[in-house]
């Protein structure tokens, strides 16, 4: 028997492979070298068989290059990009079909299905959720852009932030909901564990007003990122990052999902905006400290999760010792 912690699952290597694939495809667009298409496709292939959503960048780059081909500004001839992408798609399909034939595919698809009459409402709410969670995840980038670019000098930034905060307050007052809007990794009871897998007297890790403040901060951060995306000067292929983010976000609007599936969207949006920052030693040091704090918190929550499982196991062994079951024959 085995048990997985929500804080360390296949999402971690899948996200790393998504990043590798996106960056390799970006290099292909910039350098016009097909080797980067092969490398990006290899990363997408490995990502797909780590967590299926990590394979979304393969059709994303295919659609992007097809559009560029139509606009007559593609960096490759049609055959140059169709061969690596086509071979990879064929390998993915063949591998998936073989796993299906062997009945080795993971179950749980029904967990993500939605009744048809709820899809429009779900899509509207998840548009907001993605917006706020990207702001939460990429808050350090938003703070850096706000500081370096002095965004507070533009009234449009105030308008976007004000509108985002207003929507946050209206949703709180009318529905009594705030972060965490959707559960899984970021949870009321800690990083990972939730009431569906915990026993005993459960305690919220943070008070309601702290979550409210985090929600307003995340909305303001998301508005700052949106403002930066709108005003930043874009190169010819900068839209690749935004297109990849959109392709990863689109399925979330039509299926029941979790917060961890927003991570690739945030990653690609961050990769689009990061070139606008000028990195200094001080910023690198602050980023290092922030990553260390997040890592320690993540490890502590995983330790908590594993200790809880150990306590349950010890309790089961104790109960079995006091009341042994029938002897197997």
What integer is the average pLDDT?
A: 88
Low-confidence stretches: none
Shape annotation = globular
Q: Within the largest sheet, what's the order of strands?
A: 1-2
Strand content: under 5%
Per DSSP, the total helix count is 11
Terminal CA distance reads: 22 Å
Task: Give the % helix.
Answer: 55-70%
- What Rg, in angstroms, do the CA atoms define? 23 Å
Number of strands: 2
Sequence of secondary-structure elements: HHHHHHHEEHHHH
Structural class: mainly alpha
Oligomer: single chain
Instruction: Describe the sheet with the most strands.
Output: 2 strands, antiparallel
What is the structure about, briefly put?
The chain is mainly α. 65% of the residues lie in helices and 1% in strands.
How would you describe this protein?
The two termini are 22 Å apart. The mean pLDDT is 88. The chain has helices at 11-31, 34-48, 57-70, 78-101, 119-137, 139-149, 155-175, 208-231, 239-249, 263-273, 281-322; strands at 186-187, 190-191. It is an all-alpha fold. A two-stranded antiparallel sheet has the order 1-2. The radius of gyration is 23 Å and the shape is globular.
Describe the SSE topology.
Layout: H1 11-31, H2 34-48, H3 57-70, H4 78-101, H5 119-137, H6 139-149, H7 155-175, E1 186-187, E2 190-191, H8 208-231, H9 239-249, H10 263-273, H11 281-322
Antiparallel strand pairs: 1-2
Helix pairs in contact: 1-2, 1-10, 2-4, 3-4, 3-9, 5-8, 5-10, 6-8, 7-8, 9-10
Features:
single chain, mainly alpha, globular
